[in-house]
Amino acid sequence: MKSKSSTSKKNKRSEISFSLSKEQYLQLYYYMRLTREFEESILKLYRQGKIVGGAYTGNGNEATAVGSAFALEKQDYLFPMHRDMGAHLVKGQSLRNLMLQHLARGNSLSKGRDGTGHYADSSLKIYGNISHLGAMVPMACGVALASKLRKEKAVVLTYIGDGGANVGDIHESLAMASVMKLPLVLIIENNQFAYSTPVAKQKAMEKYSDRAMGYGVPGYTIDGTDLEEVYSTCKQAVERARRGKGPTLIESVTMRMHGHSAHDGSEYVPKELLAAWKKKDPVMKIEKLLTDKKILTPKVKEEYEGKIIATLDDAIQFAVESPYPSGEEAITGVYAA
Q: In which domain, by residue range, is 260 found?
């Protein structure tokens, strides 16, 4: 895909290559496979009645989540959405913590008061999603301003969906970030549907990245299933922000292969559309890429699969055996009007 927005020639993405080592490729493979298996486990636990509320997956979005977060450094901030589980893992979050969070256990990051990705872990500079997703971008913008004032040389990476990209909060944040040259990178995850509303009914322009022109910032549209393209584009945007050049808007085009959440059968999605995108499965693509590069041999693949299963089994067992919060603990810090 690799299409540039119609921002201007000065915003044309440079052809600087950010090469990856063999070890880094294998890290990326591990995170993508672990993300896929973790979310499949979440669906199984949901069907078993062990998870209450929403159960979301980023099936089809793994390259976007993993590739973008891999472009960050330790000092950078991450504001992920509900389909960015891979970004949590790349930033250093443990599988145990993520499983505890989804099973709403008392020793989870939210102390059992939430069962999805709504949490904060300041030690890793991860600030989980807000249900009103558009409201997360102004928060990320504020953190970017604080980071700039503190001279931290840190970058803030956040995401919004194709539907959420139409919320006024996004416009206000980009207007502020562009004028103040804040170290912010915003990824619009264009996965074809905002719940059940197709992209064609959400925008009139050809690409979401075309909106970057109105803010005077670079805008790019990339293949969200291509790990190398995601990483390379995001790395350049992150380093640009770190140099004090301001924000970048990136549209990552992919497909939401499951429903909005576990309860949604997504009957409204044309079967032929799913069939076409299934051929672009990002996990399948990274496996083929590394196999062709002779990095992922049968022996290495077997070792990684064993590691993934063992890590996942440990996290599930640890979370299932962990206690729920007591009644008094569950209502502490929870406010209702």
A: 3-10+23-193+201-328
